[in-house]
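Because discrete structure vocabularies remain unfamiliar, we turn briefly to a single example record, giving the amino acid sequence and backbone structure tokens:
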Amino acid sequence: MHKRQFRLLTMLFAAILVISLIAVQSHSLKAASPLGKDSLTMVTSPDYPPYEFYDTQGGERQIVGFDVDIAKSLAQKLGFKLNIMESDFNGLIPALQANRADFVMAGMTPTPERKKNVDFSIIYYEAKDTIVAPKNSNLKQPPDLAGKKVGVQLGTIQEQNAKKIAQKVKGIQLKQLNKVPEIIQEIKSGRIDAAIVEDTVAKGFAQANPELEFNVIPSEEASGSAIAFPKGSAFVQPFNQGLQQMKDNGELEKLVTKWFTQSTSAPTLSSPAKGGLNLDFTRILPEIPFILKGIPLTLLFTLFSVFLGLIWGTVLSLCKITGIKPLTWLANAYTSVFRGTPLLLQLALVYYATPQLTGYDISALQAGVLTFTLNSGAYMSETIRGGIQAVDKGQTEAALSMGVPYQLMMWDIILPQALKNILPALVNETIGLLKDSALVSTIGVVEILRSAQIVGANKYIYFEPLLFAGFIYYVLVMGLTFAASVLERRLRQSE
């Protein structure tokens, strides 16, 4: 019996190995040579209007803004095509370090700490920090923040400046958040007293939220936005020449006028703010097609992860029930690692570490599917193992006594019964994957939640797009639950 089990496991591992080799070979054909490239990849965080944000009119997904126009002009001058990718702001420098991009533009200031990890161009725009706070709160200058809770965006120059202010003004409690819209919502909710935000961004939020005001903080040292490059990049000098040319011929000033003197997409509210959530879903009606475009990607991601996770979980479960101790030990160790570490950590490691370890520029969707497959396989393996062991052992003994090969016995007799018994648990895992798919938004996949966050950033609102995204998730989960119920009833009819 051990020989038959070992033969089955050997066949499964061989199949996985062949698929992996084919995938690696196909990926190697697509890998671009570092020499003679005809396109440049820019990574940005498109939730920071007017620097970079999504133009969602007509349901399209086009990143536009001040930085984007500069990048397009520079790429044209240098004779390169421009590819734009997105990421959270705190993932921009890791993207450069992982060689996922040629440069980063996101209103980034070249601080001494950042210069240790990446190279910078010359400053192309200087902005100022502001204190955003409720009107009549008298929080206008740094000394006024004594004893207050102050919000800042994680990884930004404003966070560093706020820490310097906190060293001089006693009692300041800093709260770091990932996105500026989250910071503004914290102010409106009363969980923080104020926030330190760049002036051009603060202006848009003040227009959309009349109950808020912003005041410029006097700058003690020069600061501004620059382009970030990987260490030792050959593009720093040509980009500096291009930026200087744009400054000299007035092109840069025209872009400043275009993006910073016009009103952003935020509407100016004429009526005073009301109590409660003050919801107005009419503000997101034009953006609904854009949010709905995240549904196919979410479903595609979920289906791939469930299908591959089921296969991988089956392999792990067979390793656990076999009498071959090394395989049992490896499967149990694997399960303990993936169940004992956060999924978000696994996702970040796969996405950012893969290019450095293998040289293959794994896409965000591929990284998400791979991570969720590996993670869900660990959980499914325990479920499948329980389902297999729940099948009456007499069926296994009867099949083997009749001369049925172990492989056919497992495939035709044991596994079908096990899968039918664990169907509710598999449905729960699928629902969990569907909802957890929102995590891939942290590495730039524009699924349902990311689409809603983009709309919120563009419109300077918070609740309406998130509530609509929640409604979409609920409908998808209910549809999946109904389909699973129908399948379960049909399977029961054969009993």
Observations:
- Residues 15-35, 263-273 have pLDDT under 50 and may be disordered.
- The chain has 19 helices and 13 strands.
